[in-house]
Design brief:
Rossmann fold; dCMP kinase activity; globular; Cytidylate kinase; binds cytidine-5'-diphosphate; alpha/beta; CMP kinase activity
């Protein structure tokens, strides 16, 4: 099965997708990490973040590797481990500019489809159910209020020793939601056949359980249909 989990920033996609994949023994792919890695490489190489032609050229020399590891997969670009760096605010606040560029989307989508062709997978992002894996058997669209998402990011930052005001976090989340939903190519949107799951008042375990239930129901229906 292919499981697509999409939704806005800090809705809980990667945390939940990782746990679902572990439970089912599926491959997990965090597509946001790919766009973050491209943004990191562009900043490092002085490539303008909205220059599609320059980004396309940069991507011809872009060797991206995901290495499975606990608690999070390692992200290696051109031999450099940038797992931690791609989560820095500098990247988070600029990634939407890069992810809106046509050549970046084309290349990343292709790569994600190749990864998915290897077998059962849980993939999370913004356009998995609509563009990358439109044939996915289970599509979940995770949402939560802006306030709740800012609270989650706030706690996450505090655990890393970073203090950011709630107002700043809410503003950043709103700005990224807007950019991701209004870009021309593959904007963030719920696929018509995706299940909407509002996680505002749900903890991680509750969300994982709900998703596993949807998957099991889908599996049951599949088996019934075959007979
Ligand atoms: O974890 P968080 O929600 O903060 O973001 P992410 O999933 O790491 O994604 C970072 C950025 O990459 C998003 O804000 C989008 O601009 C872009 N992205 C995308 O365009 N398409 C995807 N399938 C995944 C991420
Ligand atoms: O991938 P995405 O940006 O959608 O969100 P995430 O990075 O998985 O989750 C953002 C933060 O919210 C993490 O610190 C999670 O532990 C937390 N979270 C939560 O408190 N409750 C949930 N139901 C889901 C995530």
């Amino acid at each position: 099965m292919q499981i697509a989990i999409d939704g806005p920033a800090s809705a809980g996609k990667s945390t939940v997708a990782k746990l679902v994949a572990k439970k089912l023994d599926y491959i997990y792919c965090d597509t946001g990490a790919m766009y973050r890695a491209v943004t990191y490489a562009a900043l490092k190489q002085g490539v303008q973040l909205d220059d599609d032609v320059a980004l396309k050229k940069m991507l011809t020399q872009f060797d991206l590797k995901f290495i499975p590891a606990d608690p999070e997969q390692l992200v290696i670009v051109n031999g450099e481990d940038i797992t931690k760096q791609i989560r820095f605010p500098e990247i988070t606040n600029q990634v939407s500019l890069v992810s809106a560029q046509p050549s970046v989307r084309e290349k990343m989508t292709k790569r994600q489809q190749e990864i998915a062709s290897a077998g059962a997978i849980v993939m999370d992002g913004r356009d998995i159910g609509t563009t990358v894996l439109p044939q996915a058997e289970v599509k979940i669209f995770l949402v939560a209020s802006v306030h709740e998402r800012a609270v989650r990011r706030y706690k996450e930052n505090i655990s890393k020793g970073i203090e950011t005001s709630m107002q700043t976090l809410e503003d950043e989340i709103k700005a990224r939601d807007y950019k991701d939903s209004h870009r021309e190519i593959s904007p963030l949107t719920q696929a018509s056949d995706a299940i909407l799951l509002d996680t505002t008042s749900l903890n991680i375990t509750q969300v994982v359980e709900k998703i596993l239930k949807f998957i099991h129901e889908k599996e049951k229906n599949k088996i019934n249909w075959k007979f």
